[in-house]
Amino acid sequence: MSHFKINKKALMGAALLATAPTVKADGTVRSSTEGSKSKRGINHLTLEEAPLENITVCVPGKSMAGLTGDFRYLPDKLAVVHNPREANYVKMTFIVSHMNAVDYDRTLLLAYSQNLSPFPQISTPKSINKFELDLESVEIVGVYDVSSFGMKAQPETRILVNPTPRIKYEFDVNLDILETLRMMNSGNDTIYVQAALIKKSDYEAGIWNSMILSEVDTIHFVEDKCPETMIVEEGKSPVRVIEICADNDGRFGSCGDDRGK
Question: Signal peptide location in the record (predicted)?
Answer without folding.
Answer: 1-25
